[in-house]
């Protein structure tokens, strides 16, 4: 059923919205008949097994099952009625709910949706406080900026009276331009009333284009006067305080509360469990743990190499050498010395790889060993190419990609 839901969602997205009678839409229409038939059979079988709605645990007493029933009913209704009817067109829009049917089949998705609804019910107080703060700042903004965001389309004019005439551009500079009527217009986002102020502050809280509103407020002059550059720079404190309280503080409280709600809902199913969270994680780890296969060679000479590469001293030495090799990449003041040290480190890492190849039978099974081998081979090739390039082209620069890795 989940596969059919995914396929039906894909077919819904693949429809041609322009050519409704195209060959692709005809094929997808037949596929829609198949999907709807499968979903109808599924609902009939579930109602037969669980019952319709008369007793506890019946099909229609689950909200997700009602969503499935709604989607299938919409599809069946659109099939039996003519597509020219406007009601059918509206019903077909509801087919976008098809992907939501996957929620009832995946436990993780269902838990997320349930947590979202619980969070919405429990964050009411935070929303009320945020709305009150938004209203308070909007009222302050109205007192500070009411009627001050007006300006003339001709920036040289600063009053409505001056803006009434017609703008005539200089013929010397722009002889092709015609006369343009001046307009005394308001900003799209302003503080002329509380509602517009709340809308303007909402754009500030989203951090999308809010510097333009800030600059408009800083340049705002008296009522019925055009803007003056940096007329009141100190007014920017209003927006800074708003961003700190609303955008940073309240939004973080909102997000934190949602996270806490998700965590509590995740722990709700274990409220009657005698084990705490750490103990449950230990049990899960023990159940999912897989034995680690360790290869110990039987050949005496190979066993010696195996003991060397598995000793802590060998790991410490290689770690120090890796750090030393990294330090040589930081400075280019002593190029010849750094090149010699790089060759030495490459030789040491090559010896390490050879020892591991001798000690371990399946060296390349471990991804980290394969990665180390790739770096060593690349470093050797890097040195070879660099030496050849310096011999053939003395002014060429070497490639340090493998060195950086």
TrEMBL record:
Q: What's the protein's topology in the membrane? A: Multi-pass membrane protein
Where's the Ion transport domain? Answer: 1-267, 313-387
A Gene Ontology molecular function term of the record = voltage-gated calcium channel activity
Concerning SUPFAM superfamilies, the annotation shows: Voltage-gated potassium channels
**Any one of the GO CC terms:** monoatomic ion channel complex
InterPro entries xref list: Ion_trans_dom, VDCC_alpha-1_subunit, Volt_channel_dom_sf
For this protein, the parts annotated as crossing the membrane are 30-54, 66-91, 111-140, 194-215, 235-262, 314-334, 340-359, 371-393
Pfam families assigned to the protein according to its UniProt record, in alphabetical order: Ion_trans
Q: What is its main location?
A: membrane
User: Per its UniProt record, what Gene3D superfamilies does this chain match?
Assistant: 1.10.287.70, Voltage-gated potassium channels. Chain C
Quote the subcellular location field of this record. Answer: Membrane
Which keywords does UniProt give here? Answer: Calcium, Calcium channel, Calcium transport, Ion channel, Ion transport, Membrane, Transmembrane, Transmembrane helix, Transport, Voltage-gated channel
**Protein name as catalogued:** Ion transport domain-containing protein
